[in-house]
Amino acid sequence: MMEPTMVNPFEEFPEPQAVSLTHICLAQAVVCLSALTSTAVLLSRVLPSMISGLN
What we know:
The protein is mainly α. It is 78% helix and 0% strand. It contains two helices and no strands. The longest helix has 39 residues, at 16-54. It is rod-shaped. The mean pLDDT is 82.
């Protein structure tokens, strides 16, 4: 029969620094994707008029 083992409470929860670092990285990724998306939308609206102006 297996004996029940005590669970170390520090192993159940990650370190607060790791959690905050993860949140910071996720927030930066969201901001980066948002900036790329808005740039792509802006270019898709501006480039056709610029190209037609060059012709």
